[in-house]
Amino acid sequence: MIKITLVFTITMLLAMFESVASCQFYDSEDISIEREGVLLKGKFFVAQGEGKFPTAVLLNGFPGTRTDVIGIGKLLADAGINVLTFQYCGTYESQGLTSFDNQQKDIQAAFDFICQSDNINRFRIDTSLIYLGGWCNGGGMALVYSVYHPEITSVFSVVGNDFGEFMREYVRNPEMKKTVDSMFDGFIANGYARFDKGALPKEMAEEGIENMNPVYDIRQNTKILAQKDLLLICAWDDNLVTVEQYMLPLYRALQKENAKYLQIIAIQDGHNFIKSRKILATHIADWILAAPGRKQ
């Protein structure tokens, strides 16, 4: 158990610091997204070339970074895909307080941003080719958002967290609880995140995970998700969002619901894809660029 906890802690720290180190030098346009009086800071990676481009709203892990999402944004832009990413409310320079529900509102604000006529023209957005996806926390949030929003038909989740399964493990595993609580305390102490009341894992557990909004229990929403065009990407050596506990059960549940447009890819790497980010981005880009033909 001690060994598992140590691996968990080290991997979580790497998830934060490796992401920052790998992304801080990329060129992108700074953007600001307004959401109900809260200002979100973000980046827009602009695809190069002629004409209009498919566009992806790419969601961070938690608390994410000030720049890119483990380098995926820049790599997708290089492949001819616009990418918008942002800091969740209550993280880094974004205003407000963070929570699951507030992050969902942030995603809506991001879609409002890319649908504004000025931004459509500025970034040459093909509004018929809009995609939602994310890494870790962001992958889970993307799936949750698509459950709420039938207009979101194409979603990619890279080692996406299932918040229901995460909270169940948090409650039943005291070593994990200790590590997670310490990590979130660190986010607060270092100014990485400011939480809304009741948004910390320990507060949700005290309230009772049975009272958590069932939409965040992703595996319980596969009937709706099975109607989407889905790409799931997992990492064989991931010690956080493991293939066995998170990714494969979700895939099997979607198969049981006869998901028609479902693809899963496993990459030989860890949670942060440190060795294979170009391969990861290529899989996502290929899936996005081939999307129109899948439903013809």
Question: CATH homologous superfamily, by name?
Answer: Alpha/Beta hydrolase fold, catalytic domain
Low-confidence stretches: 1-26
Classify the helix fraction into a percent range: 40-55%
For the largest beta-sheet, the strand count, sense and barrel status come to:
8 strands, mixed
Number of strands: 8
| C-alpha Rg (nearest Å) | 18 Å
Count of DSSP helices? 11
Number of structural domains: 1
Q: Spatial order of the strands in the main sheet?
A: 1-2-4-3-5-6-7-8
CATH class, anyone? Alpha Beta
What structural class should be given to the helix and strand makeup? alpha/beta
Architecture (CATH level 2) name: 3-Layer(aba) Sandwich
Q: What is the secondary structure topology, with strand pairs?
A:
Layout (H helix, E strand, L loop, with lengths): L1 H22 L5 E7 L2 E8 L7 E7 L12 H7 L3 E5 L13 H15 L2 H7 L1 E11 L1 H12 L5 E5 L4 H10 L1 H16 L11 H7 L14 H4 L3 E7 L7 H14 L4 E7 L9 H18 L2
Entry summary:
The protein is of the alpha/beta class.
Provide a descriptive summary of the structure in words:
- With 296 residues, the chain is of the alpha/beta class.
- The protein has one domain (2-294): Alpha/Beta hydrolase fold, catalytic domain (Rossmann fold, 3-Layer(aba) Sandwich), CATH 3.40.50.
- Helix content is 45%, strand content 19%.
- The chain has an eight-stranded mixed β-sheet with strand order 1-2-4-3-5-6-7-8, with helices on both faces.
- A hairpin with a 2-residue loop joins strand 1 (29-35) and strand 2 (38-45).
- Helix 3 crosses helix 5 and helix 6 packs across helix 7.
- It is globular, with a radius of gyration of 18 Å.
- The N and C termini lie far apart (50 Å).
